[in-house]
Amino acid sequence: MTKHLVITTVSHPNTALKAYAAGCENHGYELILVGDTKSPVDFRLAAARFYSLSDQRDLTLKYAKLCPERHYSRKNIGYLLAISEGAEVIIETDDDNIPTQEFWGQKNISPACRHISGCNYINIFQYFSDIQIWPRGFPLEKLWGPKPMPSSTINPVLCPIQQGLADNNPDVDAIYRLIMPLPVKFDRRDSLALSDGAWCPFNSQNTTWFPDAYMLLYLPSFCSFRMTDIWRSFVAQRIAWANGWSVLFHNATVFQERNEHSLMSDFADEIDGYCNNLKIMTSLQILELESGTDHLPENLIKCYSALVEIGVIKIGEIDLLNAWISDIQDILQKSGKP
């Protein structure tokens, strides 16, 4: 299996990046690192391919010519590179997450697990911990909702998107960080798939993607850094349901040694989410989408157009999205894939 790991970084090679480079070399992964304006000009790390801004501009990708600087969405360029190289699985993470040995384990698109469907808003952290904790992007209005029981049977579930948790400093919002204690270590529990109608945000810190879902990797640019992967997750889930796919959540396979953050700056950047996450879910829920991977491009455009219409993302996003879609279609055409 051709496996790629994609990370965006403005750091010098640190503990996490060195651990990923060593792991990729030992386990047969290609490591793609995407830089930005603050990235070191002399970045060097054995077993990694680092793409500076200059390198990115030299690519033939339409999206690389349009993607804004100083934004996490430049990670999209790394995804496109991995897809162009025939990646059979893409894993993404960040440069402050340290992998455990389990991170490098075998990936299965249809794991045997329990699932939840049709229960609206699922705080997935409740199924991996008994403390009060919620994931970044979870609609605060729904925090005190019921905890649905998963299916009683364990069966293979098609999950082309799979989210691993993170121990120590998990992906919680700024409100949690300001008022609740850390660190946190999740309990070791069975994986759980969320199916049609079961909403839960997922992030870009420890996420595995299989080829059918590659089109849904797209990170929007016309929103804050703290919302781009969260709002992507809402769009991806909605389109996944139209295709009969579920999103898997599994035990932590990384632990985070968090880069320096201003919690109040994070809070300010998350206000759009606190105010609009539920609104976004509701707007996406009512869309009529077509099933089938050949309809992924039009479904993406329909979803992001809906977010433009409700005023949470600016109209300029559509130009970037069209470039992304065009690049993937060009890549697939050159590879001879449908």
What does this structure look like?
This protein is an alpha/beta fold and 338 residues long. Helices cover 33% and strands 17% of the residues. The protein contains 9 helices and 13 strands. The protein has helices spanning 15-27, 53-57, 62-66, 75-84, 174-179, 228-242, 263-285, 296-309, 317-335, and strands at residues 3-8, 29-34, 49-51, 89-93, 97-99, 112-116, 120-121, 155-156, 161-167, 192-194, 198-199, 206-209, 247-256. The strands form 2 sheets. Strands 1, 2, 3, 4, 5, 6, 8, 9, 10, 12 and 13 form an 11-stranded mixed beta sheet that branches. The protein has a two-stranded parallel sheet with strand order 7-11. Helix 1 (15-27) links the parallel strand 1 (3-8) and strand 2 (29-34). Helix 4 packs parallel to helix 9 (317-335), helix 6 runs parallel beside helix 7 (263-285) and helix 8 packs antiparallel against helix 9 (317-335). The longest helix has 23 residues, at 263-285. It is globular, with a radius of gyration of 19 Å. The two termini are 19 Å apart. The mean pLDDT is 96.
Task: Note the main sheet.
Answer: 11 strands, mixed
Mean pLDDT comes to 96
Strand content: 15-25%
Oligomeric composition of the shown chains: single chain
Count up the helices.
Answer: 9
Which geometry do the CA atoms define?
globular
Q: List low-pLDDT spans.
A: none
* Cα gyration radius (Å): 19 Å
Q: State the secondary-structure class.
A: alpha/beta
Describe what is shown at a glance:
The chain has 338 residues and is an alpha/beta fold. The chain has helices spanning 15-27, 53-57, 62-66, 75-84, 174-179, 228-242, 263-285, 296-309, 317-335; strands at 3-8, 29-34, 49-51, 89-93, 97-99, 112-116, 120-121, 155-156, 161-167, 192-194, 198-199, 206-209, 247-256. α8 (296-309) packs antiparallel against α9 (317-335).
